[in-house]
Structure formats: C-alpha cells, structure tokens
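ok trying again, last paste got cut off:
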Amino acid sequence: MKMKKLALLFMTGALLMGTIPSYGSSVSMVQVTEDKDQGVNYTQLPSAETLKKDLGFLPKAPGKLAGGYTFTSGDIAESFDLDSKGKEINRRKSMNFKYTLVKGKTTKSVTFSAEPKLQQSFSENYSITKYGEINLYYNTEYANYLGWIENDIYYSLMDANKKVTKTEMIDMAKGIIDMKTDTAKGK
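nice, full thing came through this time. structure:
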C-alpha cells in the first residue's frame, strides 16, 4: 500500500507541476489521498450540504457534464505544500470526481476536481480560451488538462488517457461555470 501511495504522490506531482506555483526550490507540492477504506468516497453524487460538510467549502458539482458524461465515483483528497524544512503548509481538501461516457465499445472518462484557490499559476505552455471573464487554461503535456479559477475555487478537468478533446473539455467547463452554486447536482 505504501508503494501505491508513493507512486500516486510522484505521479500527481508531475501532473500538477505546471499548475501549482513553485517558490524557488524551497516549496514542493505533495498530494495525499487516503485509502478507500478510510477516506471520504462517493458512489453517488453527494448533496450540496454533504460536500460543504466534507470539504469546508461548496464547489459546483454537476451530475452530468457536457457531451453526456455521467458521474461514476468521487473522493475527497487532502493536499499540502512542503516548505524547505519539510514542514507541511497550506493544508487543504479537494474534491475529485470521475465522469464517464460509454459509446459502444469505447469508454472515455474525465476527472473533475475543485479545491480552494491559493496561488495557482499557469505556465506559458497553456493555451488560453476566454469564457466571459474567466480564463480557461488548456495543456496536453502530461494529460489533456483544462483549469480555471472561479469565485476563489480552482477547478480542473483532466483526462490522463488523452481521449477527451479540448473542445469537449471547454464545453464541460462552460456548463460547470454556468451552474448555480446553491446546488451540487446542477444540470
């Protein structure tokens, strides 16, 4: 189990390098996800009240994403940064939900995540699409990835298999942005 956590730690760090600011060499990003038996896991989309209780904030959480992707599972992860002495700083919780689309023998999935906005930054390797006042940042370096900040919440969509297109992800983001925040299920 320790090897799984270590592998997850390194893989997550590599994927997030372009989105999480690095403060010189004094801070690095670490993400810790609890074991399925111990952490908060969802097999059904939770209510807004449950999300607020589990996370400490209320992100948008649709039952479906544009293109017919439906919620299949989710969990709450804890993230933190390490300072130069290895001390944990900026501890926060994030939501990670998986949405899936099955067409014939083809299955595509995307992970939708939300966490409090800290000091996320995007490198010049991202293409930017504007939706209203919100910048959508897209990158394909490690996965098909789209991120944005709205109402002090950092949202992202990620497809590690690179089957979900930029257009699909932008349509998903637009649907999420247009949701009301007083409901978790939305559209």
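cool. The first helix runs from residue 2 to 16. The helical segments are 2-16, 48-55, 166-177.
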